[in-house]
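Predict the 3D structure for this chain.
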Amino acid sequence: MPVLVFRHVPFEHLGWIADALDEHGLEWRYVDLHELPDADVRPADADALIFMGGPMSANDDLPYIQRELALIEEAATLGRPLLGVCLGAQLIAKAHGASVYRSAVKEIGWLPVSWTAAANEDRLFAGLGNPETVFHWHGETFDLPPGADWLASSSGCRHQAYRIGDRIYGLQFHLEVTPQMISQWCVEDANCGDIREVAEPIDPHAHSERMKDLARLIFGRWCKLIAEFVRRCAA
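Done. Predicted structure below.
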């Protein structure tokens, strides 16, 4: 069965995550509910689900946002591995009972994140440098979902990563972006307001080599988690 990838705008796609999925032999396909909110999508027919970012809010009363929240709840009940990035992390948090709201600080560009003690024991984040500089683009944040393990923070955003159980992860930062994606984001009409607030031009390549290595490691570990889940279901 495929990994279902929920996009919210075309330019916020898998990036380095696609490389990890391909490297581990995992089939995947995009699901664009913002174009077809009534599309026939069933978590039971997927090995895992990924929810990407976007300029909208998890609080928006949009048909596809409400549909995704319901799909997250269903997938979690079925025990499917879930990964949320930025908006995706906020959607997963909200579907698990947490609040999503405007952040006191809008983080855009290359900024460090620090790992918690729980991250040192986590199967995705163990053994990383502390801190690591990664890419950010968000103006909202969320409370930690009930029962979640807090994994990362930054100076402007306390909840940068979390884990629910052993198969659900939310990342506020954008570990998936390639330099080409960053360049594109900086000229997208939907992001023009944010770009006007950035004090200095964003260099897409500033920390891209290290982030590529981190993405291969962390998303590769998540792919191994999926493979283990599939083997367990087949046994």
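The chain has a mean pLDDT of 95.
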